[in-house]
Amino acid sequence: MKFLSDQGNTSAAVIGMGYVGSTVAAVLAGEGVDVVGIDVNPALISQLEQRSCWFSEPGLPELLYSGLDSGRLRVSTGYDLVSEVDVVVVAVGTPVVDKELVDVYLREACTELSRHLRKGQLVILKSTLPPGVSSNVVAPLLEGGGLKVGEDFGLAFCPERLSEGQALQELRTFPIAIGGWCPDSVAAAAEFWRQTIGTEIIPCTSMESAEMVKLASNWWIDHNIAMANELAKLCGELDVDVLEVIAAANTIRKGSGNVNILLPSVGVGGSCLTKDPWMVWKAGQDHDIDLDTIPVAREVNDSMPAYTVGLIVEELNRLGRPLQGAKVAVLGVSFKNNSGDLRATPALPVVARLQQGGADVAIFDPVADPGEVKRLFGLAPAETVAEALSGADCVAVLARHDKLADVDLVASRDSVAQSCVIVDGRAYYSRETIDRFRRHGFAYRGIGR
Ligand SMILES: NC(=O)c1ccc[n+]([C@@H]2O[C@H](COP(=O)([O-])OP(=O)(O)OC[C@H]3O[C@@H](n4cnc5c(N)ncnc54)[C@H](O)[C@@H]3O)[C@@H](O)[C@H]2O)c1
Question: What's the whole-number mean pLDDT along residues 181-202?
């Protein structure tokens, strides 16, 4: 094989030790690979060195610390150790602002990397990129150091599809799509993943194809959720339980699989679904194609926090209570169930709208970091769920954490207001539980329920 010649004892550098890079670095080190984790953020590197990182991903801090303790994982703010490794994985952030890719981190990382690349190395891109960026932006920047891609070093794009809450398990088990600059790059990347994580490989015929794999996947998810959200809005009006409809619809076969409608919710957040569809949309614009489903789905999903606040106001008014002066206990504020990740969380616009309407909002989240919650929401979270619930006119469940499963709202009946509404932003409760709430004098509203 042209690249990755030093088989059997592969070493790797991971550029960008954020959420994705740290997960990849920790898993590789856990599989016995010597890993150098590089990040330009000195605070992050120093936190890792002191074994106190902020990642709320289950199992990730422990795996990182065990890699660091064993010496399998080293971390640095500089690129000097890059020349020692066989494979360089790039996982820097690729945000989208005003529907445009912000490629400054990618460009800086590739420019610095080009100064440290040596012959025989393989560069694997994990950052999510619009189609063509690996070939037209990354490759020329890497060649800036004097080496030729495909001749002196290999280049492959392997989209990362892990999601918060189960990232370690997903990284260890999900098939890996690989698009390469050349067949040798694909072969080297496939060999690297086989030797290390050992998952199934899906070869793609080009880097553009692999770039589109990730984007198509997130486009589909965002679009599917938008459909579920609109279905929920209608079901709510028809007094039909949207979960019953989705569960039954999902038993219907379509081709070799089933219909798979996802769940409606208070909104879509996180760093991928809110931006990746815009990368595709922009690629369409660049090729004079209007990809109309993308803005529509984004708009529908972005409308859900306001819709949820509308449900809260409607139910409070039905109970004779204006939003002004009402206490709303918000349980779970991260963008996703069982994750402490607050990036682009829909709970933020919900809380802001409630406060603008004069509500007294109390937050409780047993998973998210309290300091991060306070920084983002400008509101110190309650230390206990009892504190948040005390005197609440409304309990809004906005993230369905397993750690909230023990919270028995019926047992807290005496501590909340006499007329109290439960607003279920995550399709949390079963029909039996909803009936139990109603028997104990709670009003209940869910998204589409
Ligand atoms: N769930 C997810 O978050 C997810 C899933 C799949 C793919 N992705 C994609 O993976 C990429 C990384 O996402 P993330 O969530 O880890 O982002 P992140 O913001 O958590 O981490 C990016 C890191 O890159 C570092 N960085 C920036 N410039 C650098 C440079 N020149 N050299 C070294 N380090 C540099 C930053 O300091 C930061 O720590 C993005 O393209 C994202 O779209 C994310």
Answer: 96
